[in-house]
Amino acid sequence: METNSIFIILISSLFHSFWNILTQTSNNSQCFSALKGIWIIFIATVYFSFNGFPFTIGYELFIWALISGILHGFYILSLSRAYSTEDISYVYPIARSAPVFVPLFAWFFLGEKITILIGLAILMIISAIYILHFDKNLINGLINMYRAIRHNDMRWTFITLFLVVSYSLVDKKAMDEYMFYFPETPFGNGITFFFLEAVIGFTICNVYVFNKFSREEIINNWSLDWGKCFLAALATTFSYGLICIVLQFEKLSAIVSLRQVSVLMVVYWGCWKLNEPFGRKRVLAGLLVILGVILISVDERGI
Question: What is the pTM (predicted TM-score) of this model?
């Protein structure tokens, strides 16, 4: 992977961590996400006002944006439902397990070649995430996951995982099409596609939130968090907008794996805020992620 691509993905991960932290510290995460979505729709309106609505991209790319938006919208709703039925210690590691499955589906649907170096990098990064989020060790974590698969209430968690894998494949296919038709504007391609799918996805989310919560509750939460929502909207735009740019040049499996660095960032932020010791577990996870990044960076032609 090109050094520039790695740098962009790491910057994207930083923004991803930032908006997740803002969401986690909000008064009501669902109302927060709804207002964040309205801010993103507003930013998209400003963007299209200055750059023009992309009528020229063609029917096919609009269809990809529609599919992606629907998948992203239901992903947010499914994740919220999963958190309401099960403990986060089960839900989060499973929902972040996309790098385990994306390479297989990317090989099958997109024809991506998974090299030995990329395979090792994915294994290291995923191991780091599981070490961080399971209390005892990796083996016990995998045993817990097996038990979770057999638990009926965990179905929303696995639906969430399915949606993550699905929108990743759709977005990669869409950005490949964008690059084929508009190879001279990769930056504009990525930002435009992000805004198209985000408007659809957050419209779905807002319809759900406005039907679930009372007007008074929504207004009260928005009055408390409107500034943080705006910052989260900017961070989300940079986070996934940058990923849409990189998707035009790099393998999906490597991108999805490298993005998991954001989980490490959030965990270390929690250590700093709560004055918790880093400990051997967190140090090991950090080293595994660093090794994974190095392997991805040196993989160019495959071995």
Answer: 0.80
